[in-house]
Specification:
2 domains; alpha/beta; Rossmann fold; 15 strands; OB fold (Dihydrolipoamide Acetyltransferase, E2P); five-stranded antiparallel β-sheet
Length: 237
């Protein structure tokens, strides 16, 4: 995604006032284009399935289709920013790799902060698709945004509510999902070996039976990922 690209947005909410407010925010934010504002979530779904949107501002509680159902249907076809009055949906939303979670009433300052996250996500995704040669990623951890060189990553582990990035001398906790890291990181260097682990293949010390050893840690190779992993490293198993 180059600097000139425009991010195409949809706003959908069953409350007209909420739709109009967010649509106004989109219209006055440089680099963002409003392609649809609607109280009918099915219209938004149709637009996403036609490939017309990069980002959707999505309410959770809507009569025809809930936000959770919407995300299950589109299966990552575009980025999502959740907008809702109910904070209890936050963790469930992050299971779908949402960009951010905006609690109503949404201020413009908070809206802009969310859009900056969306830009970063879309730029990272585009860079991987275009070149697959990224050298670093930016990770929000410990109330900071850290620049992490890919060569410093040993492996990434999915925990209950977080993802842990294991470096040689430290561990960073992030709210990003393992699935998102899997899509960002170059396949020539990183591979998923288990539902809970992505490893840096250059950091493998040795492989013993169905375990990969990295920095003295024994990491399991899941049956689902076994064939692809051994094929990638050129070992017939």
């Amino acid at each position: 995604m180059n600097a000139q690209a425009v991010i195409r947005c949809i706003v959908t909410d069953d409350e007209p006032l909420a739709v109009n407010l967010l649509a106004d925010y989109v219209n006055k934010t440089p680099g963002f284009e409003l392609i649809l504002k609607t109280t009918n979530v099915l219209d938004a779904l149709d637009a996403v399935q036609q490939g017309r949107a990069d980002l959707v501002f999505l309410d959770i509680q809507m009569p025809e289709l809930t936000g959770i159902q919407f995300m299950k249907i589109i299966r990552g076809a575009c980025k999502i920013i959740i907008t809702t009055a109910y904070p209890e949906y936050a963790l469930q939303g992050y299971e779908f790799d949402v960009v951010d979670y905006l609690l109503k009433p949404v201020t413009y300052e908070r809206f802009v902060a969310a859009t900056q996250k969306a830009i970063a996500r879309l730029e990272n995704k585009s860079a991987v698709v275009a070149t697959n040669t990224i050298k670093h990623i930016f990770v929000k951890a410990d109330y900071k945004i850290r620049k992490i060189d890919l060569n410093d990553i040993l492996y990434i582990e999915a925990l209950r509510d977080y993802t842990a990035i294991h470096l040689l001398n430290e561990k960073l906790l992030s709210l990003e999902s393992l699935r998102n890291y899997e899509s960002l990181l170059p396949e020539t260097q990183f591979v998923r070996i288990h539902k809970s682990y992505i490893i840096n293949t250059s950091k493998i010390s040795f492989i013993e039976r169905s375990k990969v050893i990295i920095n003295k840690e024994y990491l399991p190779v899941g049956e689902t990922y076994r064939k692809h992993f051994f094929s990638l490293i050129g070992v017939d198993k």
